[in-house]
């Protein structure tokens, strides 16, 4: 797969002329990563942003006691570490590869030059960051105010669905970390939603049976 292909689906590059997009990609660095490899860590100075070309990247934070909270799992076509092009401060989380894959690294200088010539990049970036902020606020609300089944329903309703099947893009263990549950508690919550006819869980795959009921469950306090 040509390493510029995933960029055509990146929201921040929409509206950018194709020749300019190719120039940007040429200025980037493609890096192969192994499962478990640390891409960036909390406290690290970062002056670039990254995009997943293949594989999955997990963004998480850990307490001094070693408890880990998964914040987001990025898949192909998704950018991460966006603060690297705006903020000179330290990275606020750990980014680790969940699987073997490839990422694109684009330095701040290259992005700044492109943004000066094409302001649409900045509008796209603001739109993307706004969506990430909304997702973060929903995660905080979910962890603080909802029971596990409601948290699971809230997370599932926002995932991409293809032929009524959720594109989970992660293991159940990682999903458990996102919703603040143990794998066992997550399994019980999924079985409960299954019994109530909202989803069907088969061999690790989740199919949405009643999207409206799932949304109502997610909105319960």
UniProtKB/TrEMBL annotation:
InterPro entries: cNMP-bd_dom, cNMP-bd_dom_sf, Env_Response_Regulators, HTH_CRP, RmlC-like_jellyroll, Tscrpt_reg_HTH_Crp-type_CS, WH-like_DNA-bd_sf, WH_DNA-bd_sf. Residues 146-212 form the HTH crp-type domain. Keywords: DNA-binding, Transcription, Transcription regulation. GO terms for cellular component: cytosol. GO terms for molecular function: DNA binding; DNA-binding transcription factor activity. PROSITE patterns: CNMP_BINDING_3, HTH_CRP_1, HTH_CRP_2. It comes from the Bacteria. Gene3D superfamilies: Jelly Rolls, Winged helix-like DNA-binding domain superfamily/Winged helix DNA-binding domain. Residues 12-113 form the Cyclic nucleotide-binding domain. This is CRP/FNR family transcriptional regulator, anaerobic regulatory protein. The lineage of its organism: Bacteria, Pseudomonadati, Thermodesulfobacteriota, Desulfovibrionia, Desulfovibrionales.
